[in-house]
Design brief:
The structure is a homodimer of 459-residue chains. The first copy, chain A, has 22 helices and 6 strands. The first copy, chain A, has 459 residues and is mainly alpha-helical. Chain A is elongated, with a radius of gyration of 30 Å. Chains A and B meet through helix 3, helix 12, helix 13, helix 14 and helix 15 of A and helix 3, helix 12, helix 13, helix 14 and helix 15 of B.
Chain lengths: 459, 459
Amino acid sequence: MQDNLLTPVEASAAASPVPDRAFQDLHVADIVERLNEQDLETAASVLVRLPVERAVEVFDRPELARAGELILELPEELAGRILKGMSADRATDILHQLDGHDHAKLLARVDPETLKSLQLLLAYPEGTAGSIMTTEFVSVPATYTVAQTLEHIREVERTRETVYAIHVLDPATRTLVKVVTLRQLIAGEPQQPIVELGPNREPITVKGDTHREEVARLISIHDLLAVPVLNARRQVLGIVTVDDVIDAIVAESTEDVQKFGGVEGTVEPYLQIGFANMIRKRAGWLCALFIGEMLTASAMQHFEDELAKAVVLTLFIPLIMSSGGNSGSQATSLLIRALALGQLRLRDWWRVAVREIPTGATLGAILGVIGMIRIAAWQKLGIFDYGPHWRMIALTVGAGLVGIVTFGSLAGSMLPFALKRLGFDPASASAPFVATLVDVTGLVIYFSVALLLLRGTLL
Amino acid sequence: MQDNLLTPVEASAAASPVPDRAFQDLHVADIVERLNEQDLETAASVLVRLPVERAVEVFDRPELARAGELILELPEELAGRILKGMSADRATDILHQLDGHDHAKLLARVDPETLKSLQLLLAYPEGTAGSIMTTEFVSVPATYTVAQTLEHIREVERTRETVYAIHVLDPATRTLVKVVTLRQLIAGEPQQPIVELGPNREPITVKGDTHREEVARLISIHDLLAVPVLNARRQVLGIVTVDDVIDAIVAESTEDVQKFGGVEGTVEPYLQIGFANMIRKRAGWLCALFIGEMLTASAMQHFEDELAKAVVLTLFIPLIMSSGGNSGSQATSLLIRALALGQLRLRDWWRVAVREIPTGATLGAILGVIGMIRIAAWQKLGIFDYGPHWRMIALTVGAGLVGIVTFGSLAGSMLPFALKRLGFDPASASAPFVATLVDVTGLVIYFSVALLLLRGTLL
């Protein structure tokens, strides 16, 4: 451990009330948590006094909030050493968080070698395998024996993010021959050639532009500890490790829940999203939905005469509309996950439609019966008088619910397929979007049923 | 490889059109995918003809659908061998899927030793660390050297789910002293005592009843490959591996999206949920929401006189109500994730409320201005005549939106806190539930604003 690095304590830091010793004995995750609770300056002064190795571990944690701002607060030389020590994928992450000016300022602090590996990763868009891969992996030529490989791992162990996957390369072309796990390696005989270990299946690999969700799926279904990222000539550019994938899965599911709620996806901690940013993330969708929902006002205007004649019909509009939206949101949530988990493909849309129509009709009938009982009960118990035609009104509400809930289930289940067909992420289908889609049609269905059943009596 | 096990081909299987050879050269995940597409009998006949080791690997994959039904289809002796070969945690999973009768039938097929380890896991409720842990882990006494430990790992490697975490136990009490990684082990000197390796921090551990979500969080933030499950005497009962955790995280996020959509959480693939089951999963919440939403009818009945006098007010009811629901659903989705990721604690509710009120008011004002422009435009362009008081109606809609969107954001953000406070999972807050909550209040706000602004003119 480099305990001598504790000495360059800054004058301002010396006055800080945070006990240094307490920080050093903590797990990295706990240090991160405490730093997140402090203001930027205090957190920076704590980091300055940690051994560089510990500071690197702290910056390597994706849970560290304001990592970009924090590293800018550190003395230049220290910032450069931390960036060099960090895993390249996480350093890229931090650079992605900064704007152009700070980005350049930070890159100016690193040595040429680190700069080169960072620039390789920065070339890939966020959310791809290339952007989350690490270039610090273990590789040996296919001519090595088990003993030679073990010796090599011992030498490089400290500088590699993971040593559990060993990439066996063709000595001439440097293309990937196979991936041997550390487990297979230690089970092998010292003089055995490394290429003889493990099964002879084609290794699971990805490309730099593979989406992180697909990388996560491959690692998860094949129970891998890392997956190599290959270029077009099948040379290893880097690897994505299981840790990175867990972080990616957690980030994806945060985005999915937020998108489903109708918010632009964000991984920033809630309390750290600025006011203007928060408005921006929410106002866009809210306005779009509001403008879409304006069609309900147009639909209502269209039925203005009927509304004036039978105000009693308006009493059930919120009830009926929301039931359509709710059933749609249920169907959408089921289908988003089924598509994300690969349980369904695009061509299965027809099988889903054939299931959703009877499901929706049954659910609508259940709600319809409850609705009719409610109207009859209020009428009979004298709680409210729906007029002489109350039986027909109850029937209108019941039949309307069957139609609207069926339509809601169908529309809600088809929306993720439609988005996927158009090349969007099916998870962009949000509950508010489904509700808006169903609301307008729901009103038209309700008034059409009313016109059909009540013509000659109320209308 | 036990290739001789290919010979006992059943008569019925011999006639099957599935090419055996093709299956053997595939990755396990691909075999699983193909089996999932076949009917139960064909899938079983394929499994019978695979080497037992491969069949075990297939059953070890959580992606294998109908695993319980499939294993019941196999000859008794083979089923027993597969259950013995499988990781205990996955076998428990399969047993959890079966009803009491089949459960007992399957347990009767296993040897006493396997039975004992399965019964240990079966005692833990689903969703806990105990239910997903494996009892096949590597442990050595604290007196071992690096060389002895490596030798031990080579011997037991085939029968352990993971060898990447080595559990160092007190030789007398068998309590956990520390966890050494395989990486640290191979970096060590052969004659070095194992207890000297790795940092001397308290190892991260869980208890049998720790929720899988918490286990996932610990593995993820500490970048572990496995976490030990301890009993009250700090002895190791089993370990939860990173693979199991990825599966748990994926299952959790499926449940979270479904719950947010208002469906009872399910991990069954969509097309395999029976019709009756599908209705059951959706009807419960849909009926509960419907009954809650009936309060909107009561609210409307309360304002019946106003409605009759000013039918024009009803035109904007769906628009206004849905905006409240949408802003609520946005806030809920943000807060659910912030709480799940530990970015916020229960005591932070006040800080959130203080942020949501101005956010909601601003968003409401934006929508209000759009709404007022829409009314003015339609009036001026002669598309629709809102009557002589259209200016006041526009103002009512605008002011109503500010009130309702503010209330929606506040209610939507407080709901996850309220659920957590009451001991429920904050992720049980669904978009439909928030919408229903906001709809009733939204109507009351709208009509109250109308009464205030339109009294003496329209009302």
